[in-house]
Write the structure tokens for this entry.
Amino acid sequence: MTNMVAGSTSSASGPLRHRPLSHGIYVPTVAFFEDQSEDLDLRTAAKHTVRLARAGVAGIAVQGSNGEAAHLTHEERRVVTQNTRMALDEAGFSMTPLIVGCGAQSTRETISLCHEARSSGGDYALVLPPSYYSTLFMTSTIRDFFSTIADASPIPIILYNFPGGASGVDLSSDDIIALGQHPNIAGCKFTCGNTGKIARVAAAFKPEGMGLASPFLCFAGSGDFMLPALAVGAAGIIGGIANVAPKACVRLFELQWNERDVEAAALQEVIARGDWAAIQSGVVGVKVALNEFFGYGGRARKPLPSPTGMQKMKVLDGFRELVQLEESL
């Protein structure tokens, strides 16, 4: 799908977005490391990025939860972003947008990460709310944080609502709608899993005329509720399960877009079962699946464990049905 939306033109109130977001599947890629040294494995990362792009995804995200951003130095973040942009460009996907995780606990560091993302080839900054000192926050703290970031960032930001990764901080639909009025805030990733919240926010930014671009896009944060999210106005997903099954996720999006509801519902069931394995095991499980079924992946950086024995088999069994479907597409 190439239904172009938020940010296709420049204006005095916002920066030029030469790789606009479109409706579709965005993949928060995993980071790859050498087995012994834990140095970045850039060759495997590039290979994986191109595999995803060729599957038809709308965009790539780096340094999210699946990308082990918490395990990377600033310099490694820069290298990962540059390597991903280069891999896309060299494979003929120069117009594929690149989203870069830029969350940090301070306003100052978050702004710094946004500038680093831009200079390294990123098009959008995915930003978690701060949470470490959340018990000291005032009512306006979170909104002020995002507004300040949006004012200072050289690239548009995407709000990242992930209570599980932010000590329970959960943006309300009122917060998101208010922040979405900022010309440099392009959308929100809803890893909260709240379809009602997506419905309220999507409705608030629904274009008034046919064919008009939405100024703000809503993305489901995982594949297991893609279909209900799309039904209430989401533009797609930014979902980790697409690391393992990008074609299946793209196929579900296309079925829903073409109103083939029965087929879409059946495919959503398979994706939801596979995504449950990913949700339970996180990036550790995604890497186990990539190793077993696709021959690459490595392990996560320590102290994250590497499943073995019965635990590993349980993870693989959870992915197996979805991988079989992926390989048939």
Remarks:
- The longest helix spans residues 261-294.
